[in-house]
Amino acid sequence: MEPRPAFWAGKRVCVTGAGFLGFHLVRQLQALGAAVRLFTLPLRPDHPLRQDRDVEAVYGDVLDPHAVARGLAGSEVVIHTAGLVAGWGPALAKMRAVHVEGTANVLSAAGTACVIHVSSIVAVGAARSGKVLTENHLFNLDRLAVDYVHAKRAAEQVAIAAGRCGRSVLVVNPAYLVGPEDHEDSIMGRFCARFWKGRVPLAPPGGFNFVDVRDAARGCLLAAEHGRPGRRYILGGENQTLQSFLALLARAAGFQPRALPRLPLWMLGALAYVTEAKAAASKKEPYPVMQHVRMNGYFWFCRSDRARSELGYTSRPLSETLTDTYHWWRDAGLPSPRGLIAWWLRAGRWSGRLSAGGRLPGPEQISLPGEAEAVLHADEPGCRELS
After folding, report:
1. Residue 378 falls within a domain, yes or no?
2. What are the C-alpha distances in Å from 45 to residues 19, 295, 384?
3. Which pLDDT score is estimated for 336?
4. pTM of the full structure
5. Domain count, the chain
6. What are the pLDDT digits (tens) for 248-267?
7. Which residue, 59, 78, 129, 250, could crosslink 255 as a Cys pair with Cβ 3.0–4.6 Å?
8. Contact at 8 Å (CB) between 180 and 132?
9. What whole-number distance in Å separates Cα of residue 209 and Cα of residue 303?
10. Phi, psi for 235 (deg, rounded to 5)
11. Is 83 among the domain residues?
């Protein structure tokens, strides 16, 4: 289902945050004829939204209640995407405040407007086994030392409580966002680009649900049209191990890596320890970081049945998304691999399972024990959220 122009035409909509999802929300709302206002921190001079005269931009911080009130004034719909995404450095100190206090400020300023609070699948939980989760899953990560997970969870609880007390507030939980026009260099966008440059020679452990950012944006709009207050909706795409995800990245770029062995979790943790120690001196963002390594110990798999049945939500194949993503990064100046990197990425053929010879398998060949195996076969509905 597509958002209805009749619902959005002329409607006063405020989007908080100009990140990956916020950008695509603004573009889709413009196409539907909405009167769009963007509340965000100051944009860099060359940002496409700063150069767009059809977008009313109000600059401010979600931690400033007066600025939030000014940004949201007169809005009929508020889509709250603003927040911090970080796993290292000084941003961690204000992570919870930005998400929790920022959400409270938005809810206070929104008045009677419909509020779509953008949470994340990390607020739903995860499983060691690869179990596929739904909105009804009981959060099981209280002891996981990852600031982002707990900040998103706490902010979501604030929003859901408001919705259950009679406010027009509901929650969407997008999966890991990938897609083109990634002007703020999202975490997954940087990971994809890093692989295409030949800087991810080993497949990290774990797995995630990946969704096209354009589909997630459309899901937010459908939630405003059809969602029920006090309820949350997972906006997912395909469940993939990170090994199978790298296989899809390679295919999107026309690469055929000679080998891509799976990296054990303990080794990834040791590498993060070294990179963070170096970053403490250099002040440059390390990769990987320990908080992300802890997330690699889980499978963040989910289903979007509720969003499909109640909102009319659908998602496109991940292979299509990654092809679009690669072309955008390439056109944006992604350097072509050279030398030994080009030899590694371009030579060889897809062959066999990793355990059978150390070569990179296709996503349909990856298998996991138990429940996870069912979600990774391309011909079964667990792999891609079918419409």
Report:
1. no
2. 15, 34, 38
3. 84
4. 0.89
5. 1
6. 999 999 999 988 899 999 99
7. 250
8. no
9. 9
10. -110, 90
11. yes
